[in-house]
Specification:
The protein has 16 helices and 13 strands. By secondary structure, it is of the alpha/beta class. It has three domains: 46 residues, Transferase, Pyrimidine Nucleoside Phosphorylase, Chain C (Transferase, Pyrimidine Nucleoside Phosphorylase, Chain A, domain 3, Up-down Bundle), CATH 1.20.970.10; 253 residues, Pyrimidine Nucleoside Phosphorylase, Chain A, domain 2 (3-Layer(aba) Sandwich); 86 residues, Alpha-Beta Complex (Aldehyde Oxidoreductase, domain 3). Strands 1-4-5-13 form a four-stranded mixed sheet, sandwiched between helices. The protein has a four-stranded antiparallel sheet with strand order 6-9-11-7, with helices on both faces. A three-stranded antiparallel sheet has the order 10-8-12. Strand 4, helix 10 and strand 5 form a beta-alpha-beta unit.
């Protein structure tokens, strides 16, 4: 196998034989193919895609590049996970893991870091002082047994090839590729020993799939890959044409998730958490229909159990949260500034892409693989799409570490929030579509 030939053939739109793709990927894992060569290959895939056999071959190599966790016997409940394709303000996992566990599921959640303009669940969790997202598999299993859910990054044992490709895609502008997203997500999930999986496929300007038809194609590809391997999979298409919730930035999003667990939080964010929990219960066989699942999820959230379980989860993984403090002891930025409307009007849009890059400009995201981030910086929105505001009304609060950060944040907010004198905006519905596939009917 000559790496340059593999790269050139994919660059020219040729389909590779499964054994050729396996040899190339295995050589990369062994160090015989360099990051520069893999970056070129990823760009070729970005432009030319992968055929069905190529995609399946890539998924198989990624799954078996490390340890594959066996499924449990079901005595503790079905093993069900959720994965989001990413967006701005998407802190759903922080609520969903303890909520689903409270409903009787075992939730072995392996998450990722910020990718492109989107925030990462691991970065949010690590804004909790002391929280450890790197656990050995035996410790991961212990937390699952004790709490019912665990939230970690990829271990060294599980899908190590995906971990390397994930980091490389982030800095080579090859994130929004249907086959690469499919292979990355499904290789991790198929290595987790799940009984069922729910996928939150984001749609809109702040998502990697901005068009509904592209998001639907991605959802279909993922559910088919999972169902063909014996996994019950549901994909929910949800809106990312505006940020989810009010907060964007790691510690700020943890605070908003805690508010939701405590019975508050933005209505749309709370609704999505309940909808996804219901789909997890349905896919896991705990309820007979989605309405029963919605009722069970809403009841569990209102009962306070998920909040107590989240605090136990944080403690079990080394995190230090202080419920006696209004900020729970989370890091806070030293500088804050309110951005106010320069004129009256109707909020016609809140561009999640601009806000996501605004968080990066503040220091809350990465432009390099090895870059440290500031967990405290970000934005809190004071308005939503369709709100009518007066001149001087607050639009957002910037949390920054420096005066330059405040200036960059103010610019991002003004670029992101559209104001018109009189308009009737038509944002996407929060929930756009559902695709449910069970083994045997893919």
């Amino acid at each position: 196998m000559i790496p340059q030939q593999i790269i050139a053939r994919k660059r020219d739109g040729e389909a590779l034989a499964p054994e050729e793709l396996e040899a190339f990927l295995t050589a990369y894992l062994a160090g015989a193919v360099g990051d520069d060569q893999m970056a070129a290959f990823l760009m070729a895939v970005y432009f030319n895609g992968l055929e069905g056999e190529e995609l399946n071959a890539m998924v198989e190599v990624m799954i078996h590049s490390g340890e594959v966790i066996g499924r449990g016997d079901g005595s503790a409940g079905p093993r069900v996970d959720k994965h989001s394709t990413g967006g701005v303000g998407d802190k759903v996992s922080l609520v969903l893991a303890p909520l689903a566990a409270e409903m009787g599921m075992v939730v072995p959640m392996m998450s990722g870091r910020g990718l492109g303009h989107t925030g990462g669940t691991l970065d949010k969790l690590e804004s909790i002082p002391g929280f450890r997202t790197r656990l050995a598999l035996d410790e991961f299993d212990r937390v699952l047994r004790e709490v019912g859910c665990a939230m970690i990054g990829q271990t060294d044992e599980v899908a190590p090839l995906d971990r390397r490709l994930y980091a490389l895609r982030d800095v080579t502008a090859t994130v929004p590729s249907l086959p690469l997203i499919t292979a990355s997500i499904m290789s991790k999930k198929l290595a987790e020993g799940l009984d069922a999986l729910v996928l939150d496929v984001k749609v809109g300007r702040g998502a990697f799939m901005s068009r509904i038809e592209d998001a639907r194609a991605l959802a279909r590809a993922m559910v088919d890959v999972g169902a063909a391997r014996g996994l019950a999979v549901t994909a929910v298409l949800s809106a990312m044409d505006r940020p989810l919730g009010r907060a964007a930035g790691n510690a700020l999003e943890v605070r908003e998730a805690i508010a939701c667990l405590a019975g508050g939080g933005p209505a749309g964010f709370r609704e999505l958490c309940i909808e996804l929990a219901a789909e997890m219960a349905l896919a896991g066989g705990l309820v007979d229909g989605v309405e029963e699942g919605l009722s069970a999820a809403a009841s569990a959230l209102a009962g306070g159990g998920p909040m107590e379980r989240f605090l136990r989860l944080a403690s079990a993984q080394g995190g230090r949260l202080d419920p006696s403090r209004s900020d729970f002891g989370l890091p806070a930025a030293p500088l804050r500034e309110v951005v106010r409307a320069e004129r009256k009007g109707v909020v016609t849009a809140i561009d999640p892409l601009r806000l996501g890059y605004g968080v990066i400009a503040l220091g809350g995201g990465r432009t390099r693989q090895d870059q440290a981030i500031d967990p405290a910086v970000g934005f809190e929105l004071e308005v939503g799409v369709g709100h009518r505001v007066a001149r001087g009304a607050p639009l957002a609060v910037i949390h920054a570490a420096t005066a330059d950060g405040l200036a960059a944040g103010a610019h991002a907010v003004r670029e992101a929030i559209g104001l018109e004198a009189d308009a009737a905006p038509r944002p996407l519905p929060l929930l756009i579509d559902r695709i449910r596939v069970r083994p045997g009917n893919a």
